Amino acid sequence: xxxILLTVLCVAGFAFTTDAQNDKGDFTLAPQLGLNLSNYRxxxxxxxxxxxxxxxxxxxxxxxSDRWSFRTGLLYDAxxxxxxxNIDKLNYxxxxxxANFHFGDNRNWYVNFGPxxxxxxxxxxxxxxxxxxxxxDQVSSLDIGLGYGIGYKFDVSENTELFFQAQxxxxxxxxxxxxxxxxxxxxxxxxxxxxxxxxxFDL
Length: 203
Description:
This protein is about 5% helix and about 65% strand. The protein is mainly beta.
């Protein structure tokens, strides 16, 4: 999936003439929409499949120079997993706190990295028979991890750019309460990769 995305970004880079560059003191807002591919990592082997859901929200960048900016925002971030058609639906309000490095001749590429805070909004289990159960009491209300990603942007007007990006999350805080099945303490952590697009507005 990541190879496919990088190929798309490279094609976009050759297809458009870019002049995407900001300077010290600039501030931008970027509404976005995309698909989130999420799963769990664990200290035991899991036979899980990806949950495919959506991510939507807005991020903002404050530029300290033409290369560096601070990136934050608010995103509705749907995570979870699929276990034999029993789907954990964990929905979060995500707050990235990231350094964003812009590179390329016109600073049209960027990579970002830093902590991400995820506040649990809802947690439900959709069973294979179509019924739902509430999981919120079994899931930690705060998920902390590392966010990182890569993106590409190009001008569509004087103060507006179109962007494509891939953003990943690697959970560092355990999301489940103690679960001692068969004498094992099962620890679950969120992992995900979101592929999204949106517009950047220079303010």
